[in-house]
Amino acid sequence: MQPVDVFAGNSPVILGVPHAGTYVPEEIFARLNETGKALADTDWHVDRLYRDLLPGTTMVCANFHRYVIDANRDPEGASLYPGQNTTGLCPTTGFDGLPIYLEGQAPDEAEIEERRVAWHATYHAALAAEIERVKAIHGVAILYDCHSIRSHIPFLFEGKLPDFNIGTNGGTTCARQIEAAVVARAKAAEGYESILNGRFKGGWTTRHYGKPGANVHAIQMELAQCTHLATEALPFDYSEERSARLRPHLGLILSDLADLAGALNSTDKKTSRGDQHG
Question: What confidence score (pLDDT) does residue 1 get?
Fold first, then answer.
């Protein structure tokens, strides 16, 4: 099993999918308790949900489960949300705050570092390479980080999560035009609720790669799983009906981003020429 699948395209838009993988090595899976073995915190079917929405889109998918190592966490272990309940680089509890390992079987620091090198670093090497490749083609790259989560998780947030949770870390990870376009499409999606930089402001991936001044823009979309799953409990089946209703809205978002890439690159070139002659 290779840690990462890369589907390289020629669009300026790159889809990051760090949490849809379900692979857990046997020696790790055997140490999980029943809560852990359910793999309930998977971003179920997100790769399928976004597939073929925008021609030529690059997709980078982690095949390993976030319980092995979380590809959307700071590799140094720093919390993304200080003071709030969350899970770390190598989770020992799930989103409900319950242990996922048998007693005494959680990984130590040495094992966490081994997992980081084998899985986390491999995923990000692939993602970084695709960002550079796409930027070399278009002069700009837009990373759209794809996520989903159960719509009710009291340990993490109160009540029901909005359907579209857009994260730009307070507007710092992408151009304002990108943020505005995604927000506008989400608000226009009839029957769905949306929020910008609410409970989920963008994970480590968005914050790490989003450098608008260097022509790399990043934005995170956390979808409530009620938008595309038949049930938010085992077996977490994909809903063709719900997904068919959602996918056109996601397609419009990605199409807008691709259109904006050209406009942003043109603006950047004009600014650069102006600086040279100023």
Answer: 81
* pLDDT for the residue 20: 98
- Indicate the residue type of 263: A
Among 11, 8, 52, smallest CA distance to 250 is for 52
pLDDT digits (tens, 9 = 90+) for 260-270: 998 887 555 44
Quick one: tokens of 47?
């790769």
Question: Residues 56-109: pLDDT tens digits?
Answer: 999 999 999 999 999 999 999 888 888 888 898 999 999 999 999 999 999 999
Nearest to 223 by CA among 48, 5, 89, 68: 48
Percent of the chain scoring above 70 in pLDDT: 95
